[in-house]
Amino acid sequence: MAIAATISLSVSPTTRHSAAAAFNPFRSSSSTTVSVSFSPALRITSLRSSIPFRNPSFRVSATSMSIQAPQQTSSTSFLDRRESGVLHFVKYHGLGNDFILVDNRGSTEPRISPEQAKKLCDRNFGIGADGVIFALPGTNDTDYTMRIFNSDGSEPEMCGNGVRCFARFIAELENLHGNHSFKVHTGAGLIVPEIQGDGKVRVDMGEPILKAADVPTGLPANKQEAVVKSELDVDGVTWNVTCVSMGNPHCVTFGTIENKLNLAEIGPKFEHHVMFPARTNTEFVQVCSPSHLKMRVWERGAGATLACGTGACATVVAAVLEGRAGRKCTVDLPGGPLEIEWREENNHIYMTGPAEVVFYGSVAL
Ligand SMILES: N[C@@H](CCC[C@H](N)C(=O)O)C(=O)O
After folding, report:
1. Subcellular location, in the record's words (predicted)?
2. Which of 7, 92, 94, 113 is a Cys-bridge partner for 359, taking CB atoms 3.0 to 4.6 Å apart?
């Protein structure tokens, strides 16, 4: 698998909302070299292991990677290229939850298989990402369809950070500027991301699903058929958990987030617990105040990630159901904060947060 990544990371704080344009090396017609300069405004958390930068003069140490000077003159021509056997992609992140975005508007089936996605997500032998996201044609009166493969190749129903990246990716593909919203068909139904003037994306995430059988979980439910503060035995230790589906399953537990919480050890035990027939994402949450929560996550199919949008939404729902917080909260994740609101009048959840381009690349399949 040969990967060519083309990176220009020069962003000023004032151009943050048009970061895609600022990042895009293909917009410069005369550019034959690639330079990297880090500005304080630039989040590079998602580059943590995918491409090892040694110094600002740009070096990629992995022998299977080669950096190519751009020959094209616009992002549209780059993203439109359709050589067989070559996949062009854009790497994005939402608070360090990172994704390989693929233009799949020409077909209703993903252009690569789950197995290929798993290879591309590998942080040592591939591009490195928490998942691969495909922008497919819309269906059921929607503008687009979003599908995603986790880094283990499994296909989840939805991805909150991913759909913000998806909206920014579509805006770039369609050359749209300013405020735009899209109707996106997902495995969780209709999701509506809206790009705001400040470049952040606010997403109508729809309604949470609380009915135990639909989460799905085998844990005992209350009269409303919801699993709230149920006891879950994990290897002899009892945890109190609340289960919420945002299209994808979440198990939320409250306590103190200690540094010694060993996600890599405890996470898989929740994920594969017999009470979760479709596996589960798990959120470990600390309440700082009724409007401020801190959360760490173990994701189904992706492991410990720096952020999880659906997880932050499920966390606020669980906090409200357990009487721990109000309906409008800031949720702090390792990669940064998300603003979440569970609106009483329509039962919908709204998530607001950033989505940023990391780099453009091509990979031979
Ligand atoms: N990181 C995502 C969730 C991605 C899907 C998840 N791993 C699953 O299998 O359900 C988010 O931001 O929501």
Report:
1. Plastid, Chloroplast
2. 7
Residue to substitute in 243, 281, 295 for testing ligand 1 pocket (most ligand atoms within 8 angstroms of CB): 281
Domain ranges of the chain: 3-206+355-364, 212-347
- Report the separation in Å between the CA atom of 36 and the middle of ligand 1, taken as the mean of its atom positions: 31
Q: What angle do CA 59, 126, 135 make, to 5 degrees?
A: 110
Q: Does domain 212-347 have CATH number 3.10.310.10?
A: yes
pLDDT 10s digit of each residue in the chain, 365 long?
555 554 433 333 333 333 333 333 333 333 222 222 223 333 332 333 333 222 333 233 333 333 344 444 455 566 666 667 899 999 999 999 999 999 999 999 999 999 999 999 999 999 999 999 999 999 989 999 999 999 999 999 999 999 999 999 999 999 999 999 999 999 999 999 999 999 999 999 999 999 999 999 999 999 999 999 999 999 999 999 999 999 999 999 999 987 788 999 999 999 999 999 999 999 999 999 999 999 999 999 999 999 999 999 999 999 999 999 999 999 999 999 999 999 999 999 999 999 999 999 999 98
State the architecture of 3-206+355-364 in CATH terms: Roll (3.10)
- Residue 288 phi/psi, 5-degree rounding, is -90, -35
- pTM metric for this prediction: 0.82
Catalytic residue among 121, 165, 243, 308: 308
